[in-house]
Amino acid sequence: MSGADGTGGHGMGRGVLRPDLAAGRVEVRQRAPRPELAPLVEFYWNPRWDLRGRPDHEQKVLAHPNVHLVFEEPGPLVYGVQRGVFSRVLSGRGQVLGVKFRPGAFRPFIGGPVADLADRAVPAAELLGPDAGPGLAALNRRILALDDLAAMTVLAEDHLLGLLPSATPDPVVAEVAELVERITASPQLFRVDELARELDLPVRRLQRLFAEYVGASPKWVLRRARLHEAAARADGGADIDWAALAADLGYADQAHLTRDFTAAVGAPPSRYASR
Predict the structure, then answer these.
(1) Confidence check: pLDDT of 187 > 70
(2) At 41, phi and psi to the nearest 5?
(3) Could you give the 3-state DSSP secondary structure of residue 91?
């Protein structure tokens, strides 16, 4: 399930589509970062599966506005913000270890616009500098050979701490993380100009910040937060008044919610919920 978002505890997190099916096939463990990395790393996620003798499992995810470093076979990759539906077919037996960076927090590692990584999966050695490459392949093998999540994350964190820029921390990282947190915690925020007014920031500055640090536009982040809420309601199993939900999420009508949801997920919300 590389490239997908990690989840809390042993369950499926928001953005994982059809978590009822995934729960019977994939175990996802999560671990918080050590204090010195907490400003940059949201958490570590570790999907594990054993489908030997069982059909392959296709997992789809509506990703969050985060960059991930994923230790996986055949080598570690950096996933930029995946703006479409991320899909991965799992087979046999395996695991990955993902590092979910806070929104904006990967920029210090590359020193350039995170928007350049959008919808891409790039070999980690190409992004993390010449000193990172030689040890990454060996580190990848050591991490994936382990079963203990604490031991896995210790190896990953020791490597990340060695890559941290030595200069004074970029204060914009915390600012951007707070902006995205405000959006994702409030799917009732509907428009970029409303967000800009609430934050007392010019719209163009907001757009530049997101391109430079997040890797997706403020409009995309606002829309994705609403779609996460709609998918979570659909996965909840209760009868849903889609017209009322569309109004709650700031859509002009149910048709606009249906259009956005269908474009992102591949099925209208009522059909997705009925499955």
Answers:
(1) no
(2) -110, 130
(3) coil
